[in-house]
Amino acid sequence: MVEIPSGSADAVPTAEVEDVELYHPKSWWTKYVFSQDAKIIAVQYSVTAISIGLVALVLSWLMRLQLAFPGYFAFIDANHYYQFITMHGMIMVIYLLTALFLGGFGNYLIPLMLGARDMVFPYANMLSYWIYLLAVLILVAGFFVPGGPTGAGWTLYPPQAVLSGTPGGSDWGILLMLFSLIVFIIGFTMGGLNYVVTVLQGRARGMTLMRMPLTVWGIFTATVMALLAFPALFVACVMMLFDRLLGTSFFMPAIVEMGEQLQHGGGSPILFQHLFWFFGHPEVYIVALPAFGIVSDLISTHARKNIFGYRMMVWAIVVIGALSFIVWAHHMYVSGMNPAFGFFFATTTLIIAVPTAIKVYNWVLTLWRGDIHLTLPMLFALAFIVTFVNGGLTGLFLGNVVVDVPLSDTLFVVAHFHMVMGVAPILVIFGAIYHWYPKVTGRMLDDVLGHIHFWITFLGTYAIFFPMHYLGLLGMPRRYHELGDTVFVPPSANTLNVFITVMALVVGAAQIVFLFNLVWSLFKGREAGGNPWRATTLEWQTPQTPPAHGNWGKDLPVVYRWAYDYSVPGAAEDFIPQTQPASGGATREVVA
Amino acid sequence: MAQSLDNSEFRPTGLRGVAADFSSDQRAFKTASWGKAMMWIFLLSDTFVFGCFLLAYMTARMSTPVPWPNPSEVFALHIGGQDVPLILIAIMTFVLISSSGTMAMAVNFGYRRERGRTAALMLATALLGATFVGMQAFEWTKLISEGVRPWENPWGAPQFGSTFFMITGFHGTHVTIGVIFLLIVARKVWRGDYDLARRGFFTSRKGQYESVEIMGLYWHFVDLVWVFIFAFFYLW
Fold first, then answer.
1. Residue in B with minimal Cα distance to A271
2. What is the C-alpha to C-alpha distance for residues B101 and B121, in angstroms, rounded to an integer?
3. How many CB atoms lie within 10 A of CB B207?
4. Interface predicted TM-score (ipTM) of this complex, two decimals
5. What chain B residue is nearest to A226 in terms of C-alpha separation?
6. What is the pLDDT of residues B218-227, one digit of tens each?
7. Does A17 lie at the interface with B, CB-CB under 8 angstroms?
8. Nearest CB neighbour to A201, from listed B7, B24, B34
9. By C-alpha distance, which of A528, A540, A525, A551 is closest to A576?
10. Is the separation of the CB atoms in A278 and A334 below 8 Å?
11. Domain ranges of chain A
């Protein structure tokens, strides 16, 4: 390790690539609708994802109402319940979280944080959004076709997914689900290639990989993972479509349905599970890694302190990404496998806890003796750490084969994954929106409304999911439409169920405050100025706010330092932008 | 501020130097353009698609309790009074591998700015590709006429037909898409779009001769995938 003496670090290599020529839209349509500008595409992605997310929110309400008050709502019969479960899960994981983190935040932040004018292939980027929208429309169409959407559970396990006993199994439901996923993957690939190539090849002068903000590292690694994990889902979807449409037997064993022997035979349902979870487990980190990255930047900015152990944070992200490809079968302990495999997958699963714990320690150490501003982004970031640690610890339970087997398919699992990949990333999304909304719109979100939203959401989600651990330990199964009288479930469990449902309704309703805030602040919010958080990263140094087409005016920015020069001793301000030459202040960057 | 243009005196050596070069500013791959980098990463992703297809096929073949049809008999042609095993597939493979040769030559001539030869060689590549797809159609027709269906076949495990049609179909689709794009790029070369810096119809960006090479990357990949399909399907 050498500290580059200030002075000579002012030098920046000459431009290797000539400045890009941008496509300049001429009409309103090409400017705001069929836009090739990553910033507009980001907003389109975000609005679509949040809209479809609201559908998933309402579906979760309906499920909770049924669980707390079984029989009161006649229209929530068993079939509908399964359809709600399936659509809620699929929408949240893929169409909301993946699309919002990568399509929304990725599109907005990658070019701006790296000092690029736009994504490298703006046209493919535009197509990516419209294909995503098509996927969402196909998904929503499921609600309006005969038989309704599929009720196979978000994992779509065969053979039940394509049998007539499952809602949508022999109707349109499963077909639309599979088509929608295939279309989504095609659209995502177009966007994903853009994000990866922009990060690798489209950075500003002076922006080395090890000077990139952790947000970009998180989104970049997640995108690479998505490009390698979605193929497995793609293949699984294609094969299941053939099973359903052509009568092939990839996943279908010999099976008797309604007393009749079906034409299928010889297929392997376990094969589907392997393909699905080869996608499904990396998917957890596709959602988590951008959240890790964003939360690192929020904490550093709002604690006015450089991120602790930047290089370690980068390597932790990369190592988590790599490890997540060899843990998938921990979702299949109850499917049965060779004990040696169980041992292998349990071991790799527990090893992931090491880089993850490093990240948590580094967040806490960043906060340690920082100048903590309890702004809304900071509150959400702190809430994320608490929630994530909680959800991560239960992950250690479930990663062990012997502990997992009795807990599998109980509400304990539901509590675990909602804490760790539901609530935690969504808290980061909220924090990120409060943080970057001023850059996107030029106005601040309202603070009072924001605090109401934060406290209800944070405490409320805890009230929802924490009690579920106890219900799960009691053995209360997940995916049951109605429990009826069960010996091992005491009556008090139902009181808890009612409590959870009431809290779910409250938390859901609190999101109306947030949506109102988004719209109201757009017109009435306080003017933000270019850099309201006094942050160092490039997106806050744009000549205009919101950034204009091309982001940077005539000259591209030049980067002289890392993204975390906060509270540098001797500096005039408690932050030094990345565009400030070294002669403008010392740096805490450590150069290897 | 009088300094050298770079901070070479602080540059690390050895493996650290490799890492420092790779992670240096602006570009990780110093010689790759955006388009070429994109194609490589896309091909990596596509490798996973074909990898999953082939793994699924191997799983099906190894786990089925029903006997698997014998490929040398199934894929034999009756020529001159006797069955010649794998003859069609040998010709198909030869044709496709040859097309990689013409493609490589097209790339070479592209960089020499020899428009006519580049376009002609690309057309030859497309022709060989189309021949491959045509012979594949012939093979499909023959098998279908013998009773092979995605859900059943006369000789054994039904997964034989399912995986065969799915994987060769998916590969054939790749070849077909490749042929279409070969024709498009060949036309652009022929017209001199890359010399005149004419803008693309959709992207409104100027094209370069590099497109020929990027096209070639895709084509060689499709070729390479075929080698694996050939080995795992016909020779196993």
1. B56
2. 10
3. 20
4. 0.93
5. B45
6. 999 999 999 9
7. yes
8. B34
9. A540
10. no
11. 32-207, 376-528, 536-592
Asked if residues A534 and A513 have their Cβ atoms less than 8 Å apart, the reply is no
* Dihedral-angle region of residue A206 (phi above 0 means left; psi in -120 to 50 means alpha; beta otherwise): left
* Whole-angstrom distance, CA of residue A435 vs CA of residue A377: 6
Token pair 């012997």: residue = A402
Q: Please state, in angstroms and rounded to a whole number, the distance separating the CA atoms of residues B83 and B76.
A: 6
Q: How far apart are CA B98 and CA B112, in angstroms?
A: 22
Q: Which two tokens stand for residue B60?
A: 């099906």
CB pairs < 8 Å spanning A and B: 168
Which pLDDT tens digit goes with each residue over A82-98? 999 999 999 999 999 99
- Cβ distance of B151 and A17 shorter than 8 Å: no
Amino acid identity of residue A491, one-letter, is P
A461, A384 in Cβ contact below 8 A?
A: no
- Give the total residue count for chain B: 236
Is pLDDT of A71 > 80?
Answer: yes
Distance (Å) from the C-alpha of residue A425 to the closest C-alpha of chain B? Answer: 26
Q: Answer whether A23 touches B (CB < 8 Å).
A: yes
Helix or strand holding residue B78 (H, E)? strand B77-79
Say whether pLDDT at A243 is over 80.
yes
CA quadruple B213, B219, B221, B227: dihedral, nearest 10: -140
Amino acid A2: pLDDT: 43
Interface check for B31 against chain A (CB to CB < 8 A): the answer is: no
Task: State residue A573 phi and psi, 5-degree precision.
Answer: -115, 170
Give the whole-angstrom CA distance, residue A384 versus residue A389.
Answer: 8
Render A127-179 in DSSP notation, one character per residue.
HHHHHHHHHHHHHHHGGGSTT-B--STTTT-TTGGGSTTSTTSSSSHHHHHHH
Give yes or no for a contact between B59 and B167, defined as CB atoms under 8 angstroms apart: no
| A99-108, A331-340, B89-98, B99-108: the lowest-pLDDT one | A331-340
Nearest to B26 by CA among A1, A144, A204: A204
Q: How far is residue A463's CA from residue A478's CA, in Å, rounded to a whole number?
A: 18
Alpha carbons A240 and A235: distance in angstroms, whole number: 9
Q: Which residue of B has its CA nearest to A125?
A: B203
Chain A residues within 8 A of B41 when measuring between CB atoms:
193, 196-197, 227
Q: Which of B24, B26, B203, B211 to mutate to test the interface with A (most CBs of A within 10 A)?
A: B26
Of B22, B45, B59, the CB nearest to A228: B45
Which of A200, A266, A267 is opposite residue B29, by nearest beta carbon?
A200
- The span from the CA of A363 to the CA of A431, in Å, is 15
CATH number of the structural domain B35-235: 1.20.120.80
The one-character DSSP state at A532 is T
Is the four-CA dihedral A44, A47, A48, A50 of positive or negative sign?
positive
**What are the residue ranges spanned by the domains of chain B?**
35-235
Six-digit token pair at A362? 């580094």
Of B63, B66, B162, the CB nearest to A268: B63
Closest residue to B42, CB basis, from A193, A235, A278: A193
- Fold topology of A32-207: Cytochrome C Oxidase; Chain A (1.20.210)
Q: Is A250 on the interface with B (CB under 8 A)?
A: yes
- Select from B71, B173, B93, B203 the least CA-distant residue to A118: B203
* B202 shares contact with chain A (CB less than 8 Å): yes
As a whole number, the mean pLDDT across chain A is: 93
A-facing residues of B in 49-68 (CB < 8 A) are 49, 51-53, 56, 59-60, 63-66
With beta carbons under 8 A apart, name residues in chain B contacting A200.
27-29, 37
Q: Contacts of residue B60 in chain A, CB cutoff 8 Å?
A: 250, 266-268, 271
- Which phi and psi (to 5°) does residue A357 adopt? -65, -35
Alpha-carbon gap: B215 to the closest alpha carbon of chain A (Å):
16
Q: Which of A192, A222, A237, A224 is nearest to A90 (CA)?
A: A237
